[in-house]
Structures
1.
Amino acid sequence: MALKHSQYLKLSQKLLPQQILLMKLLQLPTLALEERIKEELELNPALEEDEDTLTTDEELFSNEDEGEITADEEFDDNGEIKEEEMKTSASDVEMEDYMDAEELDSYKYEVVNKGPDEETRDFVVVEGVGFQEQLEQQLGLKDINDREYTIGNYLIGCLDEDGYVRRELDLIVDDLAFNYNITTDIKEIEEALKIIQSFDPPGVGARNLQECLLIQLERKTEKTKEVVLAMDVIKNHMEEFSKKHYDKILKRLEIDNEELKDIINEITHLNPRPGNSETKESNFSAVVPDFIITVTDGIPELSINGRNMPDLKISKDYKEMLKEYAKSKEKSSKEASGFIKSKIESAGWFIEALQQRYATMSLCMKCILEYQHDYFSTGDESKLKPMILKDIASRVSLDLSTVSRMANSKYVQTPYGTFLLKTFFSESMSTDSGEEVSSREIKDILKDYVDKEDKKHPLTDDELCAKLNEKGYNIARRTVAKYREQLDIPVGRMRREV
C-alpha cells in the first residue's frame, strides 16, 4: 500500500478542565458540595478559607480582595504574576510581623468570631457494641470447642446487613479449608449455623426470608393456634402468602377470614431483617435544602442555602513563594515555580467554578419560581403548570444537560414542605375541555383513589383508568400503571386486605 499525503478539515469540540469542573460541582447537592470543598482545601495548599469575611447568600464565594488571584489572571514568561496583580491591600498585613515572639501566643490576641449563618453544635457520641460483636459475645458464651468456635465465628462474618447467610454452604466449606486449614462438610456447617440461629435477635443466621420467619415463630414461647397456623403457612404456603392469594390459603387450611386475619397479623409483626434492627434509624439522614423559598404578603422570595460555606481565597504565602521562585534561575526553582503556578491556577479555577455554580443555580431557580409563581404563592398543587427541562433551558438560554444537572438531587424548602426539585417537572396532559394539566395533578388524584378504595376489593388499573376518564382526563391504562409505579403503589392484588 503506497504512502500518500492528504489534507482534510475536521470539526471537533473539547471540554476545558474548567468546564468539566463546573459540571461536576453543579450536580452536587449542598451536603456533597461541603465535602467537596473540604477535600479541595486538603488537596490544594494554595487554596484557603478567608476568615476575615462573613458568609451571606449574596457574598457567597466572593473574591473581591485586591490581593487575590482569579482564573483569568495571567503570568509572564518568567512565571511571575503581573505587577499590577501583585498589589496587596491593607487587610493582607499579618499581625505577627509587628509582634515579639513572646506576644505570638494566639490566645492573647485572637477571638473566636462566627458568622450569623454558621452552625455550631456539640454532639455526644456513645459508641456501643456492634451487631457482629454482639453475636461474637454470644458465641463465646456457648460450651463449644475451638474448632466449632472458628466455624461459628466465620459464619458470623458471612452475615450480610440484613442478618442473612447468603453464601452457599459448599463455598463456605471451601473457604474454611483454604483459609483455616479446617476440613469440614455441609452437615457440620449446618450444625454450626443452628447455633448462630439460636442467638438474638431472633431470625439471625437464616438463609432466606422463609427460614428467617420460621425461626422467629419457633422461638415463641406460647404456641397459640395462630402461631401454629402461621408456621404452617410459612412452611407450606409461602408463595401463595407472598402473592396474597388468600383464597387458596383459606381453601387449603379450611379456615375462615377471621382466622386468616390473625395469621396475617402474627406474620406481619415478625422482623424480616433482624440484622438491620439495631441500625435501621441510622439509615435516615436529614434533608438539607439547596433552595429556600419564603412567601411574604403573597410574594415568593428565593434564597440559596449557604450553610457554612466558607469564603475561599488563594493563599498569599503561595503568591509570595511564586514571586520569589520566579526570580531564581536554578532548575529546581523553575520546577517549584511550575508546581506553585499550577496550584494557584487550580485554586482560581475552583473558586470561579463555585461562583459560576452559584450564578447558574440562582438563574435557573428564579426562572422556575417565575414559571410556577401561582403554586409557590398559594401552595395549591392544582395551580402547578406542566413544566419540562426544555422549558427552563430555553428561557435561561442554557443547555438542557446543564439544567438537568442543576435540578438533579436538589431540594427546595417552601412554606408547604421540602420537596425534591425534580418533582416540579412534569409532563402535560389534555383534559376533555382541551386544558393542559400537569401529570403531578393526575398522580395526586390517582393516589387519592387508592387511599379511599375498599381494601378488600382494591381497584385494578383498568378501573382506575375508567375513573380518571370519567373525571375528564384522557389517560391510557399503561400510563396509569406507569404513574402508579412512580408513586410506589403496588398492583391491586398486592393491596388486598382480608
2.
Amino acid sequence: MEVKKSKKADLERKRSLFFQIGLIVTLAAILVAFEWSTVDPNTNILAWHDEEVIEEEAPPITRHEEIKPPPPPPPPKATDIIQIVDNDVELEEELQIDDVDMDEDFEVDLSQLNMDEEDSEEQIFIVVEEMPKFPGGTAALLKYISSNVKYPVICQENGVQGSVSVSFVINEKGEVTNVKAYRGSDPNLEREALRVVQSMPRWTPGKQRGRAVKVSYTVPVRFRLQ
C-alpha cells in the first residue's frame, strides 16, 4: 500500500529553518548565562544596615575644660602696730651750743687753693667756654693748610693719596705744641702734615672762666692727586 503524505505536512523542507532557530535560542541562552549574576541577599541586607548606621552617626561633642582662675594671693601679714605715746618724757641732757666769737685777725690758708690753680694750668682741655681761634677763622685755617702743603714726590710717583689726622695743643700763649700725626696712609704724608701744622702762626688761645688754658685740637690734612 503506498503511503501518501501532504506536502504541507512534510517537515523535511523546514529542517534548516528549525536548525537555525535552535542555534539562535542556544546562543541567546549562553549569553544570558554569562551575563547573569547572583547576589547574596544577606550581604545586601548587611551592607544596607551598615550604611544606615554610618549615616546616623553624629560627630562627637567635644567640651573644653574650664580653666580655673589661680587662687587669690594670701593676705598680707599683719605688721606691728605702732603705738603713739604722749611726749611727756623729759630729756636729762640738754643740747649745749658754745658761743664761739670770731676773731677779727683770723687768717685763711690759701696755699692749697694756689696748688689747685697750678694743677689746672697743666690740665689740657678738649672743650672750653672759648675755643682757640686761628687768625681769620676756620676757612683761613683750611686755606693755609692747602696752600702750604707740598705733595711728596715719591707719593706722587707711586700714586699714594689719603688724609692724615694731626692733633696738637694750643697753649696759653696761642702757640702750637705737642704736634702728633696718626691714621696716615704713608709715613711721607704724615711728615709733610706735621711740617705744615708746626709752621702755623699763633692762635688766639682758648679760655675757661676768663683765663687762658691749654686746649687740644685736631685738623685733617688731605692729600689728593689731580
3.
Amino acid sequence: MSALKDRTTAVTADLLRGMPLPRHADGEDKDQRGRVLVVGGSLEVPGGALLAGLAALRAGAGKLQIATSRSVAPALAVAIPEARVLGLRETPDGAIAAEAAAQLAARCGACDAMVIGPGMMDPEAASGLVQGVLEGSAASAFVLDAAALHALDACTPLGRHAGRVVLTPHAGEMARLLGVAREAVQADPLEAARQAARRLQVVVAMKGGSTHVVTPQGHAWRCDLGQVGLATSGSGDTLAGLIGGLLARGAPPLAATLWGVFLHAEAGAALASRRGRIGFLARELLAEIPPIMQRMEVG
C-alpha cells in the first residue's frame, strides 16, 4: 500500500476510451440496455429520486423504476412518465420506512442496478432500509449515496455484495462513515477514500473540488475537470444516477464510476461555457450527457 500512497491516475477522455462502455446494437430491446431501480425521495425532497432516475436514463439505461414514499409517488409518476413508480410505506414525517425493505428486496431480482439514497432525509429509517435491502437483495450492482451511507458503519450484509457496490460520499458523509472529523477528510480525501474502499470492499467516488475514485486494492484516479457550478443542490443525485445507469448497461463498477464522474464534470463544463461558471441547475446537466457520450464513442 505504501507504494500507492500518493499515486493517482488522471481521469481523461483518452483513459476512458481505453475502457469503453458497453455497445448496444440496433434491434436490442429495453431490457438489454439494463434495468435501474432508484430508491429515494421523501416528502421534503422528492426531487432527489427524480434527478437520479432521469440521470440513469440519460446514461443509456433501458428501464427505470423508482421506489419512493407513498405520499409523493403519484407526483413523481406524473413528473417522470418514463418510469414505473412504486409507493412504499412511509414514516410519519414522509420518509421511506425501514419496513419497506422486504418489499424492495423482492423486486431486486428484476433489476440490474439499484441506486439508493438520493432525497432520503431520515438517517435512521434509511439505515434500516438499506440493511434490509442488502440482506435480501439479488440485484447485480448498487450505488449508495446520501442517507444510504448512514447504514454502512454497522452494515454486516455488505460483504456478500463485495465488488458490486459504489459509494458516492461527500466529505461530511465520509467523516461519519469513518468516525473522524470532517476536517480530517478534507485534509486528505484520497486517504479517506482508500480507508473506506478497503474496509468495505467497494469502489468509492470521494466527491469534492477534485473527485477521487478508489478501488478496494487502493488504486486511485483523480478527476480535476469539475466546475464550481457543480456544487449545487441535486448535483450529487445526478452523479449517483449516472453511475447507476452505466452499471445497468453492463459497465463494471470501476468503469461505471470513472465514466460517471467524467460525464458529470464534462456536462458541468459545457453548461459553464454557455451560461457562466455558477447558476446552472442540476437538472440542466441531464441533457448534456448523451451528446458527450456520443462524441466519446466517435472519437
4.
Amino acid sequence: MRSLYPLIVFLFFYCVLFSQNYNYYFGNLHAHTAFSDGNKDSVSSGVGRPDGSYGYAKLSNNFDFLGISEHNHYSSNHNPGFKQPLYQTGLTMANTANQDGSFLALFGMEYGVSSEFNGHVLIYGFNQLIGWETGVGGLSGNNYDVFNAKTDYDGIFKKVKNNPNAFAYLAHPDFSDYTTDGTYATALSNKPYNAAYDSAIVGMPLRSGLASSAMTNYNDYSQGNYFNYYKKMLYQGYHLGIGYDHDNHYTNFGRSNGGRLVIIAPSLSRANLNTAMKQMNFYGSDDSNAKIDFNLNGSIMGSIISGTVYPTFNVVHNDPDGEEADTIKIWKGYKNSGGLWASIVHILNGNNTTTFTDLNIVSNREYYYFAEIKQGDGQWIVTSPIWYTALAPLSVKENDNKIAFNYFPNPVSKKLNISLATCDDYVISITDVSGKLIVEETIFSSEFKLDLSNIRPGLYSLNVKSNKDSVSRKLIVE
C-alpha cells in the first residue's frame, strides 16, 4: 500500500498555514414570507412560513445563510400585512432552523415605507418589533413592541445605534430617502454626516431584487444598481459596506439569481455573521461563488486603520468555476473632497491579482478605497472599503526595497498568477521543503503566469528576487 506519510505531512502544513484564514460565506438578508407580503406562490409551492422558507433556502446552490426581514407594519392583508405576534414566532422559527456551521437562519424586520422622502431599512438584532401602527383589525393593542413614528428615521437609526446587538442595512436606497423633515435637503445622502447614524448603518446593496421575480433558475438578475449612492455615502463620511439583496416575494430563496451578499468570517455562525456585518467584512457579487480578497497589508475589507507609511493594496479574484477577471479597479476618495465622490486610481486588465501602492496622499486625512471587479462574462463585484489615515510624518514603507507582490491561487494545480507592485527585473523560483530548486524564470514585468502543471503535489516556497531584495512565500501545489 502506498505510504500515507507524504499526505499527512501535506495536510499538516496545509492546516497550519490556513487554519487562521478567513472563509467566505454566501447568502441574502432581504427576503419576505407570507407573514407579510412574500411567498405569493404559496398555494403552488407549498411554502408560506419562515420555517418552510429556511428549509427551501438550505437546498439552494452556494447559499449559506438567509435573513428573513418581514415588513414591520400591516396596512392591509399581505400589503404588507405583518402583525406584531408574528415577530416572536419568526424569531423562534429562525432559532429552530439555525445550524451554526451548516446554515444560518436569521429573522429581522424591514422598517419604514417606500414613499417619497421615506425608505426601507433592514434591521437585525432586535428581539422586539419596532413600529407605529394602532387599531389593526384582529389585533388587540398596538402593532408594535417599541414605538417609532412612521417617518422618524432619526429615531430609528438612534434606536439601532443604542442596541449593541443590532445593525441597520439600507434597502434599495434612493437619494431622497431617509429624511428628517420630508425634504430632499435632509435626505440621508444629502445632509451633513451624523456619527450616530454611522454607528447604526453597516451597509447597503450593490443590486436589489428582482423583488417580483418568481424564477428559480438563478438567472433573473436586476439590471439596476446603487453604486452611485454607495460612493455618495462614502463621500459624506459614512463607514458602510456594500452587499447584495434579493428582496424575495416568491418562494425562490437563493434561486432567483446567483447574486450574493458575501461575508468574510473565521467560521459560519450567527455571532460571526453579526461581527462581519458590523465590521463591514463583506461585499456584493453577481457571481454566486467568487472569492475576493481586498486587503491593505493583510487588513481585510472593512478595516479602519492608520499608519505612517504609504498604503499598499492587494486584490485577488478567485472563482472556483475558473472564471477570469476582465478588469480590476481600485477606487479612492475622501470625505467632502469636492468634484467626484470617488475616482479610479488603479486599473488592471486580464489578470486575477493586482497590487497598488498609493503615493499620492497627505497626512491626517482619512481616505477610503474599494475594489471593483468585472468578470469576463460581465458579472460585477464590488467590495466594502478600507479606510486609511496617514499619520505625520508620512514616510515610505519600512524596507522600501521590499518586494510587494500577490499570487493566486494557493493552493494551485496548474497556472499560478503573480502580480508585482512595480515593473522590474525579477527572478521567480520555486523550491521544495529540502531547498531543491524546482522551477526558475527570469522576467521583466509586473504580471506573470507560471506553469506548475508538471510539479508534484506538496508544500513549496515561492521566491521572488530583484536586484535589491528577495521575498519568499509558502505555496501549496495540489
